[in-house]
Design brief:
globular; alpha/beta; 4-stranded antiparallel β-sheet; 4-stranded parallel β-sheet; Rossmann fold; about 35% helix
Length: about 270
């Protein structure tokens, strides 16, 4: 019988035994947000399944997934759950310090929602100042190999929200729930303050990039914000998954062999 890898599924005694040697602990993050008409809203589930595969290969343990992210511009899609920036930073800080308080310092954040990234940086920088702990994080989808993407999709412009790499990975990891895109994307980007919108970050005006608080539905009512899912396949998702898992498992091994950090360990 394989040893458990999820801390949330262990007894207190089992966790104490597994944590004795300060192992690498993976913290999967994501969001509950609109992904289009073809992929489940809970993209945090992909982060968790990837964490399971990484842990199985590397010996890491997995903290309970944080399913909610900072995704304010998705607020107008029903079914999503957004948390405020201050809520996200407070919860992530509390999650990380819960481990640091017990001398567990080999922590690796697997971030499956790009908008979380600047807030993660704030939290980890603050904890280094305050606790001396150096906590690593990886943004999953920007980390997909360009070579793998080119091998699977050629020069097709498939990357973007609602497109790749999430659609193919979901077809692979959430088989039966994700499905190929059957309806072309509905791009209705218009204007705000009489300026042409370029996306959820803002508009263009005479060569200037003007930042504006644009909501996602003002760009795409179906949730497909520039991504093209029409080329997605489960086979591509399998290749992308293997690429990520292999490289992240190698990172876990590296972190497990690196010196532990933290003021209490100096």
């Amino acid at each position: 019988m394989n040893a458990p890898i999820h801390l949330g599924r262990m007894t207190q005694a089992e966790a104490a035994r597994r944590l004795t040697d300060n192992p690498v602990i993976l913290l999967p993050l994501g969001s509950q947000e609109g992904q289009g008409p073809h992929v489940p809203m809970g993209d945090y589930r992909l982060s968790e399944v990837l964490a399971e595969r990484i842990a199985t290969r590397s010996g890491a343990l997995i903290a309970p997934v944080l399913p909610f992210g900072y995704a304010d511009f998705f607020r107008d899609y029903p079914g999503g759950v957004q948390v405020r920036a201050e809520t996200f930073t407070a919860v992530l800080t509390d999650m990380l310090t819960s481990f640091l308080d017990h001398g567990l310092t080999r922590l690796l954040i697997l971030n499956g929602h790009t908008t979380n990234a600047p807030l993660i940086a704030q939290v980890t920088r603050a904890l280094r100042r305050e606790r001396g702990a150096v906590i690593a994080s990886v943004d999953l989808w920007p980390s997909v190999s360009g070579a793998v993407m080119a091998e699977q999709f050629g020069a097709a412009p498939v990357k973007g929200h609602g497109g790749e790499p999430i659609t193919s990975v979901a077809l692979h990891l959430l088989a039966g729930e994700a499905r190929p895109l059957e309806v072309p994307p509905q791009d209705r980007r218009g204007a705000l303050l009489n300026m042409a919108l370029r996306g959820v970050s803002g508009a263009d005006f005479e060569g200037l990039r003007v930042n504006l608080p644009v909501t996602a539905s003002e760009i795409a009512p179906d949730g497909l914000l520039g991504g093209d899912a029409s080329h997605a396949t489960a086979e591509a998702g399998a290749a992308i998954t293997e690429d990520l898992v292999a490289r992240l498992a190698a990172l876990v091994t590296h972190l497990q062999e690196a010196p532990a950090t933290g003021k209490d360990l100096a």
